[in-house]
Structures are given as C-alpha cells and as structure tokens.
Amino acid sequence: MEGLPIFSLEPKFLFSDNLLQTSIPELLSQTGTTGRQFAHVLIRSYQEKHQNQFPDIERSAEEIGLKRFPLSIRDILDLYKKVGLKVKYFDRPPFVTENDSGHEIRTLFRSFFEPPNTVVLNHQLEHEPRRMKYDLSAYLGHKVLHNGDGLVSSHATGGELGGSPQPDSQTDDKVSQSDILYAWRNFECSFFAGALLCPRQPFRHYLAREAHNINAFEKIDITAGVYMRRMTCVSPYKHWHYFDAFQPGFLRAVYRGNGIPMPWGNMRMGVDPCRQWAVFRLLDKPQMQKPLNQLSLLISGEYMRLYSCVSQRIKDAAKNSHVVSTGIDLIPALNAQGVDSSGLCEEIRDFYFSADQGSPIPNSIQEPIK
C-alpha cells in the first residue's frame, strides 16, 4: 500500500526467528508496550495488507445468519438457541479504572463469556440495545468459530488501542503469548459480528440506497462504529481509513487501508499533531454534535495525497465522548476517471494558500471530486 512505511529486515542473520523470539519480548518490556498493544499492531498490519477482506469469517457469519438484514436482538437470540448458547445477567454500573497506560478512565464492564455456552450480560446494556446486539453477535462468533472454548476477552467500554479496561485496576507488565491469541480471537469475533449484523450484499445495497449517509446506522439500529468499520469491508472501493479516538488523544481502533498517516502515535498521546484534522476538531470542541465532512490535502515534500472523510462525535456505553471517523483516498478514484490528480492537488494547494478564508471553492476543483 502506497504511503505505508516498509522496514527491510536486513541483514537477515539479525532477523532470524530465534533472535526475534528473544528480542521482541525484551523490547516490549523495556518500552512499556503491552502484549495486547503489540498484538493489535500486528493484526492491524494484517488487516491492511488484506484490505479488510476475510472471506472465511464472512462465510461463517452468513451461513448461520442466512444474510438476514437487519437483525433484531430477538433474531440473534433465536440464533443462540440454534447453537445452544444461554444468556445470564449481572448488574454493575460504570466505574473508574486504569487503562494500560495508567490513566484513569470511566468504563462499563459490559459482558463476558462463561465456557462452554453462557454469555453473561450487564443489565446496563438494556439501555444500550445497539451495543447489546454487537456483544451478542461477537460471542455468537466465538461459539461458531472457536466452539466456545472461553479463550476470548470480556467486553468493556473505553480505553486505548490494544487495551480493554479490566474489571479492577490490577495490571500485568509481562508479555504473554496468550495476549496474541486473545487479541486475534477478539478480532475474529468482532469481524464476525460485523458480518452477521451487516452481511455483504444486503449491506452494500443499503449503503447505495442511502447514498453512504453516515447517519443511516440509526435506521438499522447498529452502532456508528460497526457501521463505519463495515463500510470499509463491503465497498468495492478499497482505499479506506477508519479511526476511533478518545480524549485527550487515545486511539481505540485504527484501520489504514489507504495508507493515510497516523493522526498520532497509537501507544501514547500525540505530540503536536495536526489540529486541523476533523477528528481533532471534534475532540477539541464538544459542542460540535453534527457530523463534520472534510477534504484534506496532505503534503510531504513533493508527495501529495487527497483524502475525504466524515467524522462524528458519539458516546460509548459509559457515556464517554469519542469521535469515529472514516474516509477514502481520492487519488485512485480520480486516476480511474482520467483526472490529472497531481494537477488537481496542485490547484487545491494554490487555492488554499492564496484565497481568503470563506472564499467559494472554484468549479474546477469541485467538479472532478463530485
């Protein structure tokens, strides 16, 4: 993928399996990087390499869900009966704990899995039916994909990329092989949930019918995050990105199938990021509640990329405010239509630096993008 840095593993004798197996845990320990954080970087790279296409997981979801769309909670519970899953409840309100970086956050312990066949939900989810639908779907995926062996994480709201807040404040600094397994299992279950709730063909038709309206997630009663992430999977256009960001600068989820730069480091809060990005503007201005559309020209030397995105402020189950953002790289689409993308980027750059604030964008820029 253009735009993503590649690190050459040379000289090869320093990157043997044996050396990597001993040096990676030491590096993670010395830098304070948890096993879960490292696992999520690996998984994200794997996602981006495959452009978020995992047909085996989709097939499993479609076989049990029969491509029904949209699904209600009752529909999912009927599928639970089909595979022998039961549901129990517990009651625990939102509370304050620490994330993997030691920062206090407000979280809600939503649900967990008791092997071999019981999903335990927080009664608080009765007020969050869209998140209940997601949790139920993810644990159904665990039963279908992993036979409900219990090697899957509990679901908690809040935190940063690669971290899921724990029911208590205890943390473990050691890197464990199980961290990698759990992270991969969690990804599989999450992808299964998206494929179950938004099967490829019906959801693609729905997006076309709604003109890819970002607010159309409300009509099918799913979360904005599931809706946006699934858009990156089912679209025939593959050059997407997706961010889920919490104040003051934590990334909960990242996908960069189009090679867009990271808005900030995913292991720590960013230093001097570009505050003009829509995701930052929404984080910095809680009074902005409407979706924010943005056309971004990124310039690095002679290298220019043109991105279009939509960002929206939402609240999680613990009532933490965060911003979800999805967008595309426009350059491949412009090139496919015979547009001189380099010339257009130069025109946008010249207009930005020469026009007065509030000046209308000329038609020569608007028309190719439309």
Summarize the helices and strands and which ones pair or pack.
Layout: H1 17-31, H2 35-49, H3 55-65, H4 73-83, E1 86-90, E2 95-98, E3 104-107, E4 109-114, E5 118-122, H5 129-146, E6 155-156, H6 177-197, H7 200-209, H8 224-234, E7 240-246, E8 250-256, H9 278-284, E9 292-300, E10 303-315, E11 321-329, H10 331-336, H11 341-354, H12 363-369
Helix pairs in contact: 2-6, 3-6, 4-5, 5-6
Features:
370 residues; alpha+beta; 2 domains; 5-stranded antiparallel sheet; 12 helices
Outline the structure in words:
It is a single chain. By secondary structure, the protein is α+β, with helices and mostly antiparallel strands. It folds into two domains: 12-197, no CATH class; 244-369. The protein has helices spanning 17-31, 35-49, 55-65, 73-83, 129-146, 177-197, 200-209, 224-234, 278-284, 331-336, 341-354, 363-369, and strands at residues 86-90, 95-98, 104-107, 109-114, 118-122, 155-156, 240-246, 250-256, 292-300, 303-315, 321-329. The strands form three sheets. Strands 8-7-11-10-9 form a five-stranded antiparallel sheet. It has a four-stranded mixed sheet with strand order 1-5-4-6, covered by helices on one side. A hairpin with a 3-residue loop joins strand 4 and strand 5. The chain is globular. Residues 160-171 have low confidence and may be disordered.
